[in-house]
Design brief:
The protein has one helix spanning 106-119; strands at 7-8, 20-23, 29-30, 43-46, 60-61, 74-77, 83-84, 98-101, 129-132, 152-160, 173-183, 196-198. It has 203 residues and is mainly beta. The mean pLDDT is 86.
Length: 203
């Protein structure tokens, strides 16, 4: 995509044979159903998403942007994204295994987790690895958000509520980065498959 193009229009790559996509840092929005039914698409990343220079500028991902990409296994959402539309952008992404959300918006992260959990049994039940830049405070156990295959969970910041991961029997690795400021009582109780736990020095 030429550098003078700053948005991906709706359905621009729909039904194409794309296999992987790196979205340029200059792209500010991804239109509705922009990549819908890209049947061979396996990976979507953003240019310089982990760099301090020329960071991604994308702020909006519209509804169904990556829907029906059945082979999509890797998706990275940069910290610049602050708006998701209500309809699940990952609908029928049956092969999604790795999801990394670096958005700094607690609202966005809560929204993504909500739509993901509603779709998990039908769509994203192969998700094994999840990275969250922020952990929203939940009054319910995280396992009730229904990620039946989740093995690796990384939380970069936030407060971990009481009983947060209690009973997540599939979880093998839990990484709490330096930005995590508290760990609630019995947060990892009954995680019988947990093999590796990383906690920050501040806890």
């Amino acid at each position: 995509i030429p550098r003078n193009i700053t948005s991906i229009p709706e359905m621009l790559f729909a039904y194409s044979g794309l296999q992987s996509v790196e979205i340029g840092y200059q792209i500010k929005s991804i239109g509705m159903a922009a990549f819908i039914n890209c049947y061979n698409l396996t990976s979507v990343t953003f240019e310089n998403y982990n760099s301090d220079t020329n960071k991604p500028q994308c702020t909006i991902i519209e509804s169904l942007a990556f829907a029906d990409c059945a082979k999509l296994s890797n998706l990275i959402i940069p910290e610049s994204v602050n708006e998701f539309k209500d309809v699940n952008p990952f609908s029928s992404c049956y092969g999604l295994k790795n999801l990394e959300i670096y958005s700094k918006s607690e609202t966005i992260i809560s929204h993504i987790l909500h739509i993901m959990s509603l779709a998990t049994h039908l769509d994203c039940n192969q998700l094994t690895s999840l990275v969250l830049s922020y952990f929203p405070y939940y009054d319910v156990e995280f396992k009730q958000l229904v990620f039946p295959a989740l093995k690796n969970l990384t939380i970069l910041s936030g407060d971990i509520a009481h009983n947060a991961f209690k009973g997540m029997n599939t979880l093998k690795t839990l990484t709490l980065a330096e930005g995590v400021t508290s760990l609630g009582q019995q947060a990892i109780c009954h995680c019988y498959s947990l093999e590796t736990l990383y906690i920050p020095s501040t806890l």
